[in-house]
Write a structure and sequence with these properties.
Elements (H helix, E strand, L loop, with lengths): L23 H12 L4 H5 L7 H13 L7 H25 L3 E8 L2 E8 L1 H18 L1 H4 L20 H18 L1
Antiparallel strand pairs: 1-2
């Protein structure tokens, strides 16, 4: 008689996958780098750092644990806000710092090399950062758009009914003339 491979009912189910590498030190390194404006996926490519999905799993576990949470989600959110400000400051730095490069053109048989400011490249760097900032935090970095019905800008309906008053008087005058 062979024994069955079924686990006992009182045995705890086994976890699948690798164990989590969460430590407060790793969380602190992640938060510090996010506050410097370094993207999460770039941080996760570094030696000894977990995968980006693992960090999102940690944040989810932190959110669902309620009062027992370690505050990872809140710390990452604050660090990202600081990192956004750093990116905005980088835009000013890029705009104020010339970036010289070589522009090569061919004129017949001659190769002409000019050294000039890479203005288009700098403009692209700034616009990319500003567009990302506007997407990530539209209230702070986005274009100011006023939508009717917002909590801050409630919808106001104004109607000028004076034209109807004039039309009513005109109709009443015509009716009185028609009665005579």
């Amino acid at each position: 008689m062979a024994k069955s491979a079924k686990p006992k009912d009182d045995a705890a189910p086994r976890k699948t996958g690798r164990p989590s590498k969460y430590t407060p030190e790793i969380a602190t390194k992640i938060v510090e780098q996010l506050s410097e404006g370094i993207p999460l996926r770039e941080i996760c490519r570094q030696e000894g750092m977990p995968a980006w999905r693992t960090i999102y799993d940690w944040m989810y576990q932190d959110d669902v644990s309620g009062s027992a949470s370690v505050g990872l989600s809140a710390a990452i959110a604050r660090a990202r806000e600081i990192g956004y400000d750093k990116m905005a400051e980088e835009c000013i730095e890029i705009a104020n710092t010339p970036m010289f490069g070589e522009v090569k053109t061919i004129d017949g048989d001659k190769l002409i090399v000019r050294r000039e400011d890479m203005l288009g490249h700098r403009k692209l760097q700034i616009e990319t950062r500003l567009k990302l900032l506007a997407k990530w935090n539209p209230k702070k970095y986005g274009d100011r758009l006023t939508h009717a019905g917002d909590a801050e800008n409630p919808l106001e309906v104004k109607a000028d009914v004076s034209i109807f008053d004039a039309m009513l008087k005109n109709l009443e005058a015509k009716r009185q003339l028609g009665d005579k």
